[in-house]
Amino acid sequence: MTVTVFIRYVLDPFKLELFERYSQKWLEIIPRCGGDLKGYFMPHEGTNNIGWALISFDSLAAYEAYRARLRKDPEGVANFDFAKRERFILSEERTFLRQVTPAS
Hints:
It is built from 3 helices and 4 strands; from the N terminus they run βαββααβ. The chain is an alpha+beta fold. It has a single domain, classed as 2-Layer Sandwich (Alpha-Beta Plaits), CATH 3.30.70.100. The protein is globular.
């Protein structure tokens, strides 16, 4: 069963360009560490402080292995440090989803 992690970010609306840079850096890191990145999304119209990410895994065990690899990946650690230093992510929530209908 595939599990998709839905990450909801509360962002500083005055630092959205930093979230975009942060998101772009994950394009190579996440797949290298074992995640199937579906995408990062940020405000365009309407609410100006919420962003999302979707990353799929074969199982919860695969997600846990990915997290362990991510914590050891030098570029991953550097990206987490960038977010902490610049403080553009105010909070984040993770929800684990399973797909019930096929994508069209």
